[in-house]
Fold:
Amino acid sequence: MKIHIRNPRLIDPRNGIDTQCDLFIAAGRVVGIGNPPVAFHANQTIDADGLIACPGLVDISARLREPGFEYKATLESELKAAVAGGVTSLACPPDTDPVLDEPGLVEMLKYRAKQLNLAHVYPLGALTRRLEGKQLTEMNQLMEAGCVGFSQANAPLTDTQVLRHALQYAATFGLTVWLRPEDAWLARGGVAHDGEVAARLGLPGIPSSAETIALATILTLVEDTGARVHLCRLSTRDGVEMVRQAKARRLPVSCDVAAHQLHLTEHDIGYFETHCHLKPPLRTQRDKEALRTGVADGTVDAVCSDHTPVDDDAKLVPFAESEAGATGLEFLLSLTLKWAQESGIALPAALARVTSEPARLLQIDAGHLSVGAVADICLFDPEHYWKVDPQALLSQGKNTPFLGLELPGKVRWTLVAGQIAHRA
Amino acid sequence: MNNPQLDKNGRLKHLLSIEGLPKDILTQILDTAESFAGVSEREVKKVPLLRGRTVCNLFFENSTRTRTTFEIAAKRLSADVVSLHIGTSSQSKGETMLDTVNNLVAMHADIFVVRHAQSGAAHFIARHVAPHVHVINAGDGRHSHPTQGLLDVFTIRRYKPDMHNLRVAIVGDILHSRVARSEIHALTTLGVPEVRVIAPKTLLPEYVERLGVHVYHDMRQGLKDVDVVMMLRLQNERMNGALLPSAQEYFKCYGLTPDKLALARPDAIVMHPGPMNRGIEIDSAVADGTQSVILPQVTYGIAVRMAVMSMLAGSGE
Structure:
C-alpha cells in the first residue's frame, strides 16, 4: 500500500525537522519526504492540512494486562487504545500473571501482539523470578526471546545483595535494568504522599525519602557495577536533582516520569478520589514543578503513560483499598502537549520526550521519520480540544483522574508500519 | 470542589468530617444538642422526630460505645434502629461494601451510621448511595470522627462558654487519631485561638502545624496554662515497636498525672474519648478526679448524635 500524506507540518525531533512538507510511504516505510520517489502512485492520499505529522509515539510503560488480568484489560483493547493515542511502540512491564520470567511467555506475548497488527510491543522481562526479589531470571534467554530490558515493575527488591548481583549479571550482557526507586520499608502501607493532604485525610503516607534513599542505593550500585539502569517514574524534586548530578558524573543512567505527574499534585486527591491513587503517589506543587523542569532540561529523558487499566470495582472502594494506577495510553500525547503549552516548550522538543528519546532508551529503530524508516506515524490536530469521557476511551480501563477535562491534541490518523491502524 | 456534606441549599446532607463544615452549621448542631440534653433528663426520654424513619448502624469495625450511643440517640428520636456488625456477616462472604450498602438502601434505610477502618469510607458511601439517604461518619480510619469532635466541643462549651478565650491541648497519638483531627477542626472552626498538640515526633503527622495547631513535644511545656486537656487513647498495637519503645516510657513522658495537670490552669478540665488505658495515657487519680469531665462527655454524646440525626432528617424534606 502506497500512501501520500499531503501537506502536514512534519516534526521529526531526532532529525531536527520541523517543516511543512509531504510524506510518501510504500512497503511499510517512508520512501520520500517533500518529493515522491520516481513513479510513485499513491493508493491513498491523506489530506493532512492543519495536522502535525510526527513519529508514532513510543511509550516506555504500558500495562496490557495479558496474560492473567483479562478482566482488567486485554491485549486487543489496550493496543487499540495505544494506536488511538498515536502510540505505535510500547514497552510493557513484566507484572502479569504469570510474571514474564520465562522465554516462552515472552514469545507468546510478542506473537499475540504481532497477530493483532496494531502497535509494536516490546516486553520488559522480570529481573527476578516471579518478581520475588530472590532469584535472577534467565536474562540472556529472555533477551533472545525479545525482552528489551529487565524490571521489577512495582515489586520491591529489598535485598541489596540480590540487587547488586542482578546489576552485575545484567551488565555482563550489556542489558538495561529498569528500577522504580522506592524504599520498600518506607513505602510500606502508604497510599499517598506523606504531606499535608495525607495528614488531613488520615491516609498512610509515603515520604519523599522513600524515593531518594532507593535512588542513593541504586546510584551507588550503578557506580559499583557499571550496569546501565533506567530509573522509572520519578516523583520528587530531590530525586530529579540526584539524577541530574548522577548524569553530570556520567553514570549510565536514564529516567522517566509518568505524564500525569506533570499535571497533578496531592491536592487533586480532594475527597478521597481513588482515580488519584497512583504509584508513585502524587506529590507537592514544588515536586511537580521540578519534574517539569527536569523534562524540559533533559534530566528526565522520557515521558511515559504508565498506563495501568484498572477495573471499575477495584476503584469503587475506600481510597487505601483501591488499586493504584490510571489509564494513560490515550492521554500521553495530550498531556505532553499540555505540559509543553504551559511551560512554553517548543513542540519538537516536547515531542522528542515521547518519540525519539524513549526509542533511544529502548534501543529500538523507531521514533524518527527519515527516508527508509519504518512508517510509524502519528497525525494529530494540535488545535482540537477533546473532553475526557471515560465511555469514549478505547482502553478497557476507564480509570482516569482527568475526567471531564478538556485536553489539547486529537489523533486523527495512526499508521503502523505503513498501515492505517487508527483514524478518527 | 463541591462540599459533599451540604445539599444545594447549604444544609447538612451528610456528616462526614468536621473539616469543611461552616461555623454556623457547627453552632447549629451544638445549639440543637443543647435542647436535646434536656430530653435525656426527663422521665420519658423520647421525642417523635424520627418516627417512621430507619437508622442503620453499619459497623465494619467494632465499637461498643459509639454504636450504643448512636442506638440510644436514634431510639430517643423514635426511629427504628438496625445495627449490623458487618465484619461478621456479608464482607466475610465476599460481598463488596457497595453491595452491602445498596441492599440496605433497598430495604429503605434512611440514615446510615458508618464505622470503617479505612479513611474515606464514609465519603465513599455518601458518594454512591441513593440521593435520599444520609450518611453519618462514626469513624473512618485515621481520618475523622465528627460526632466525637462535636461532643467534645459541646462539652467544652458547657464548661467554658467563652470559646474565643481558650487554650486547648490535645495529647497523644495524633498521627493515627481520627478523634484528634476532628477536635482540631472543630476547635479552630469555632474560633478557639490556641490549640496545641503534644506528642513525640513518631506520633505526629507531617505538616500537622498546617492544621492550625502549635506543636509541643514536652508535655510539661505544652500543658502550661491550658484550659482544656484532651487526652487520646493509645492503641495497644502502637505501644511496643518502632513508634514507641514501651507503654511505661510513654506514661512517663506523655501520661497525664496530677503533677503534670497542676501545670494547667487550676480550673482546667480533662477529657478523654474512651475507652481509657489507665496507667498508660492517664493516671486514675486524674481520670476519676474533680477536673475530669470524661463521663459527662459520654452523656452529651447522645444529645449531639440526636441533634445530628434530627438535622439530617429535616434536610431531606
